[in-house]
């Protein structure tokens, strides 16, 4: 006679869900170990996360940036892990009655992770599928072993072998934890080479150093943004869930494409032996809302991009060149398109390897990134760059263009009130209203402040460093008790006044005046 299946209680079902979670943990641990050996970006969580980012509607991405700022990637990864946990628990419950279907479900998740990995723009081979497939196989095996304690107890046992389940499950968790630490150790060993190459890098002295920041560029106003943004505070907006860690000693940049008669491959050492220049440049993200913080100013060290292009025989369209778009490709597969005419018009468009006196941080593009004054980052500031291809805007759309963003996007004239903060309070009398304004490659010639519906009043400008950097300003407001609205606008170096028309960040950058409401106390 066939033994009757054990009676399953709510406790057993809870244990089955727990079995799914333990199996999921074990699968992710094995996947992480294999990914550490293959490459971190091939892991299921980064691969699926990148696929989600690629397929997420632009409006949702903008909402995520507005809501979570630079934590958007951490939130996405957390969301993926929560979803996997829910699916794992559900598969554990399914395994009680239909173990074959549960195993198939685990396999489907592994295949989806593998497809996400091998279809990444930076996927190099089918080995990128191995982490997800290995993780799924491990998860299916763990699930089978654990659920067997609940559905096929020892001979003569009147109920599921819960004690055996708990002991086996505890062993699985300990083993998965060990595998996780081993994966981190392997991964850290791989990244140590990149870290060591950065630590050993000695930046060359610039043949053309940046002029000293003029006295008065930093206004003595509490609450205003520092004129130079530190590397740690500089904004970061990109799609990389895993920050690429590239060995500077093996990094190469290829220049090729339409109208490039002399294709070249450059190493970092070759770049640093060229004429090195140092410049202060303010960068701004196109996702920066009016009054937003996705803008920063740094001192960059690198080589002129136009010089490299000319050595390769590239001519701008104005000189008869056939290519009007430069497509920069990152090691993570990101593509960013810039106008060839702009990067070769004499401005200090850089291939930068230094930032504020040190090698680029990994999060900001080490070993080399592009910096082009006057263009939003999504059409100029390619990080972790490995390739420059000359083509045309008609022939190729870079990453952001099919997602609704403009192919070309010069920075718009903007201004921001840093202090007082919105909805803050101040005492009656003299109040310093201060902030920054920017219009890269045009400069700022005037900033004005309006109180409520009153007249525009000129603010005092900080000293101008260059037309490629932002400029600080302050207005000494004689504040009277009550609630007031403060508004700012700027005029760029061409005499064009910042537009009042409100526009969102899409398709080519936000516009409108920045305003803050403050309450003045009678004291």
Strand content: 15-25%
Total count of helical runs of at least 4 residues:
10
In angstroms, what is the radius of gyration? 28 Å
What is the share of helical residues?
Answer: 25-40%
Summed over residues and divided by their number, the pLDDT gives a mean of 91
Uncertain stretches: 1-5
Helices and strands, in order, run as: HHHHHHHEEHEEHEEHEEEEEEEEEEEEE
- Sheet having the most strands: 5 strands, mixed
Structural class: alpha+beta
The separation of the N and C termini measures: 92 Å
Based on DSSP secondary structure assignment, what is the total number of beta strands?
19
Overall shape: it is: globular
Which sequence of strands runs across the widest sheet? 2-1-10-5-6
Keywords:
alpha+beta, about 525 residues, about 35% helix, five-stranded mixed sheet, 10 helices, five-stranded antiparallel sheet, disordered N terminus
What's the gist of this structure?
The chain has 523 residues and is an alpha+beta fold. It has 10 helices and 19 strands. The chain has helices at 10-38, 44-55, 58-68, 72-97, 99-118, 130-151, 162-200, 268-272, 305-311, 340-343; strands at 252-257, 264-267, 277-284, 295-304, 325-330, 335-339, 350-355, 358-359, 369-371, 385-391, 414-419, 424-427, 429-438, 444-451, 457-458, 460-461, 471-479, 482-492, 514-521.
């Amino acid at each position: 006679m066939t033994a009757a299946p054990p009676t399953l209680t709510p406790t057993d079902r809870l244990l089955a869900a727990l079995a799914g979670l333990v199996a999921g943990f074990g699968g992710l641990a094995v996947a992480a170990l294999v990914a550490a050996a293959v490459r971190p970006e091939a892991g299921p969580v980064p691969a699926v996360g990148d696929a989600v980012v690629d397929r997420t509607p632009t409006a949702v991405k903008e909402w995520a940036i507005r809501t979570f700022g630079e934590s958007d990637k951490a939130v996405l990864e957390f969301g993926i892990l929560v979803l996997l946990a829910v699916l794992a628990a559900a598969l554990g419950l399914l395994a009680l009655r239909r173990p074959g279907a549960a195993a198939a479900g685990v396999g489907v998740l592994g295949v989806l992770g593998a497809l996400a990995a091998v279809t990444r723009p930076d996927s190099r081979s089918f080995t990128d599928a191995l982490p997800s497939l290995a993780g799924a196989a491990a998860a299916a095996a763990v699930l089978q072993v654990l659920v067997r304690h609940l559905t096929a107890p020892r001979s003569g046992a009147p109920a599921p072998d819960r004690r055996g389940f708990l002991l086996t499950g505890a062993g699985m968790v300990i083993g998965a934890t060990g595998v996780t630490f081993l994966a981190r150790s392997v991964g850290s060993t791989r990244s140590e080479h990149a870290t060591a190459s950065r630590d050993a890098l000695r930046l060359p002295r610039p043949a053309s150093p940046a002029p000293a920041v003029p006295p008065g560029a930093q206004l003595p106003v509490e609450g205003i943004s520092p004129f130079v943004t530190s590397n740690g505070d500089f904004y970061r907006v990109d799609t990389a869930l895993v920050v690429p860690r590239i060995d500077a000693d093996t990094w190469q940049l290829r220049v090729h494409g339409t109208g490039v008669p002399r294709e070249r491959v450059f190493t970092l050492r070759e770049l640093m032996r060229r004429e090195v220049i140092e410049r202060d440049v303010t960068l701004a993200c196109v996702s920066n809302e009016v009054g937003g913080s996705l803008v920063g100013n740094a001192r960059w060290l690198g080589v002129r991009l136009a010089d490299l292009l000319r050595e390769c025989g590239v001519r701008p369209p104005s000189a008869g060149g056939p290519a009007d778009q430069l497509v920069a490709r990152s090691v993570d597969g990101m593509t960013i398109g810039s106008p060839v005419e702009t990067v070769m018009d004499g401005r200090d468009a850089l291939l930068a390897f230094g930032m504020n006196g040190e090698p680029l941080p990994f999060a900001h593009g080490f070993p080399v990134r592009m910096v082009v004054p006057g263009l939003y980052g999504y059409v100029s500031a390619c990080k972790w760059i490995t390739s420059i291809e000359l083509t045309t805007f008609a022939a190729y759309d870079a990453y952001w263009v099919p997602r609704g963003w403009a192919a070309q996007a010069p920075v718009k004239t903007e201004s921001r009130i840093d202090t007082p903060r919105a909805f803050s309070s101040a005492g009656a009398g003299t109040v310093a209203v201060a902030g920054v304004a920017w219009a890269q490659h045009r400069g700022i010639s005037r900033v004005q402040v309006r109180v409520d519906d009153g007249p525009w009043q000129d603010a005092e400008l900080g000293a101008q460093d260059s037309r490629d950097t932002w400029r600080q300003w302050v207005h000494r407001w004689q504040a009277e008790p009550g609630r007031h609205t403060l508004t700012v606008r700027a005029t760029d170096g061409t005499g064009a006044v910042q537009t009042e028309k409100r526009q969102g960040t899409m398709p080519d950058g936000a516009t409108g005046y920045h305003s803050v409401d403050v309450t003045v106390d009678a004291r």
